[in-house]
Amino acid sequence: MAATTRLAAKFNSYYAEKPVLTTMVTNAILGGVADTVAQLITAFRARVGAPDDDYLSIEFQELHREKPPAPGELGYAKNGPPPFDFERLTRFMSYGFFMAPLQFKWFGFLSRVFPLAKKNPTVSAMKRVACDQLLFAPFGLTCFFTFMTVAEGGGKRALTRKFQDVYLPTLKANFVLWPAVQMLNFRVIPIQFQIPFVSTVGIAWTAYLSLTNSSEEE
C-alpha cells in the first residue's frame, strides 16, 4: 500500500508538469506489459500442445487455425514455443506511446462536454460512456489494426483481410468489456488517472488484441 501511494504521488507530480508525455510513457509501458503477457500465453499454449484457436474464445472460430501436432508427431519441434518477438513488443509499445495524446485530448473533450453534475453524476457518466463507445471505440480499433498492419510491413490487401476477418469480432468483444469499465472510470476515477486506469485494465484487453492480431498475421 505504501509503495502504491508513493507511486501515485510520483505520477501526480510528473503529470502536473508534463501530462501528455507522462501519459505517453505510461501507455507505452503498459502496452509492453500487455504484449509480453500475450506472448507468454502463446508460448505456454504451444508448450502444452493446446489448440491456439480456443483462447479468449469470442468468435474466434472465424480464424480457422490448425491444431498443432501432438508431442512426438512429425513437425512438433517446428511448432514448439516461438521465440520472444521483441519487434512485436516494440510495435505495441509504440502504438501505446503515439495513441496516448489522442486519448488525452478525447478524455478532456468528454469531461468538458459532459461535466459530472453534483445532483446526478451517473447520467453524465453514461453519456460519456455512450459517446466513447459509439465514436471512439470503432475509431480506436481502426487505428490499432491499421498501425499494426503497416508496422508489420503489410499492404492494402493484408489490411483489407484483417478488417474482414477480425475487426467486427473484436469490436463485439469491446462492447462486452469496456462500457462497464468506462462507466467506473468516468464516474469514480480522477481525470489524471483515467488513461492509466484504462491502460491498466487494458493489459488484458491489449493482450487479447495482441493475440488477435498475431493470429491473423500467422
From TrEMBL:
Subcellular localization, as worded in the UniProt entry: Membrane
Membrane topology: Multi-pass membrane protein
Keywords: Membrane, Transmembrane, Transmembrane helix
The keyword Membrane belongs to this UniProt entry's keyword annotation: yes
Alphabetized Pfam families for the sequence: Mpv17_PMP22 (PF04117)
UniProt similarity note: Belongs to the peroxisomal membrane protein PXMP2/4 family.
Name of the protein in question: Integral membrane protein, Mpv17/PMP22 family
Organism in which the protein naturally occurs: Aspergillus cavernicola
Lineage, opening ranks: Eukaryota, Fungi, Dikarya, Ascomycota, Pezizomycotina
